[in-house]
Design a protein that fits this description.
It is built from six helices and two strands; from the N terminus they run αβααβααα. By secondary structure, the protein is mainly α. Helix 3 runs antiparallel to helix 4 and helix 5 packs antiparallel against helix 6. It is globular and about 50 Å long. It has a two-stranded antiparallel ribbon with strand order 1-2.
Length: about 180
């Protein structure tokens, strides 16, 4: 049950990151609440695929691309070519970060690299770390994506917070694995 909730949480976080990214590089067609509610319904199809069907890297990559592309075209004023490019960019960044995170965590825990989904604690840590890093990189990309867009003024603390959170998660995880509480 926890793993299913983690899948739902993961796709919701990906929706939020996509919303922030596409809001930074284009204008929304609908209000933010409608964008979030409608996007949630669409992105959570990915969670349902992971819960009820076979969860593979390629299926997740394909769904993430289609979800980002469809989401950007339906809810944002963006050209199709830019939507395809940004969707590919977001999926590539997310996939690379997830694979690196899975590899590092699997190495540290001496878990077989494809068994991380059967371990809820490992999966939780992997999701938290990979989504924080994905958020951080997506926001940095959004900041530099459109040089004509001067409306993006982000304080440096916005970027420091995800790094501090990642360090805290790794520290707590390390302590829980190595210390008697």
């Amino acid at each position: 049950m926890l793993i299913n909730l983690l899948f739902i949480f993961t796709f919701f976080v990906e929706l939020l990151i996509s919303t922030l990214f596409f809001s930074s590089v284009s204008e929304r067609k609908t209000s933010l609440p409608i964008t979030i509610i409608s996007g949630t319904l669409f992105f959570e199809i990915g969670a349902l695929i992971n819960i009820f069907a076979v969860s593979t890297v390629w299926l997740n990559v394909l769904f993430s691309f289609v979800a980002n592309l469809t989401f950007s075209l339906c809810f944002f004023k963006i050209k199709k070519v830019r939507a395809v490019f940004y969707s590919l960019l977001l999926v590539a960044v997310s996939t690379i970060i997830e694979l690196i995170t899975i590899f590092v965590i699997s190495s540290l825990t001496e878990t077989y690299i494809t068994n991380y989904e059967s371990e809820p604690i490992i999966l939780t840590v992997e999701i938290i770390i990979s989504k924080i890093l994905y958020f951080l990189i997506a926001m940095l990309l959004a900041r530099f994506a459109d040089k004509n867009n001067q409306t993006i003024k982000t304080p440096i603390t916005f970027y420091i917070f995800p790094i501090i959170t990642s360090v805290a998660v790794i520290s707590f995880w390390y302590i829980s694995l190595n210390e008697i509480i």
